Amino acid sequence: MANIEFKRIPKHIGIIPDGNRRWALSHNKEKHEGYIYGIGPGFELYNLCLEYGVREITFYGFTQDNTKRPAIQTESFQKACVDAVIKLANKDANLLVIGNATSPLFPKELLPFANKRILFGKGLININFLVNYGWQWDLSNNASNTIPRMDLIIRWGGRRRLSGFLPIQSVYADFYVIDDFWPDFNKNHLIKALSWYQGQDITLGG
């Protein structure tokens, strides 16, 4: 169990799980092999967020731009997204998969979950999963209109950019960057992000 109490917990956390390919290369693997190692960390984070009382998490699965990568990489992160959703079906969550489901690049296995919220188990937390997502597609179709504003965005892999991550919902989000690659996730990453969040301004421009 999480053993640190925080005075303020973000209701909605956005997760940018970057660094899978760089992690793979640093472990003498092919780039495409890194994605499969990103599934386990997602469920570790899910369990921690349940313990801390986070109400909603949005994971950045893959974007329409990501599909421009070599086919073997595209197939690998598509499969990782499918495997993650199948595993989540055995948990307690309300799942919403957001992405362009009319494209052949959207995994057909996820079509039953596309752009509608599905109850798994007791539905203890809302999980949003961006799959074949594009910010321009989103804005043109008002696709993510049921997803609330994010309070905190955490990005792994050291990059300091949003990469088109839910542009409307990120408007007032605090942004925390972790240099470690996503497959190296550990609970201290979240604890440090939440500790940092305690001291941030929450006036929302007021």
Structure, explained:
By secondary structure, the protein is an alpha/beta fold. The protein has a domain at 12-149: Undecaprenyl pyrophosphate synthetase (3-Layer(aba) Sandwich), CATH 3.40.1180. It has helices at residues 20-26, 39-52, 71-88, 135-141, 187-197; strands spanning 12-16, 56-63, 93-98, 117-120, 126-133, 152-156, 174-178. The protein has a 7-stranded mixed sheet with strand order 4-3-5-2-1-6-7, sandwiched between helices. The longest helix has 18 residues, at 71-88. The mean pLDDT is 95.
Major beta-sheet overview = 7 strands, mixed
| C-alpha termini separation | 36 Å
Query: What is the CA-atom radius of gyration, in angstroms?
Result: 16 Å
Q: Could you give the order of strands across the largest sheet?
A: 4-3-5-2-1-6-7
Strand content: 15-25%
Overall pLDDT level? 95
Would you identify the CATH H-level superfamily of the domain at 12-149? Decaprenyl diphosphate synthase-like
Task: Report a brief summary of the structure.
The protein is α/β, with parallel strands linked by helices.
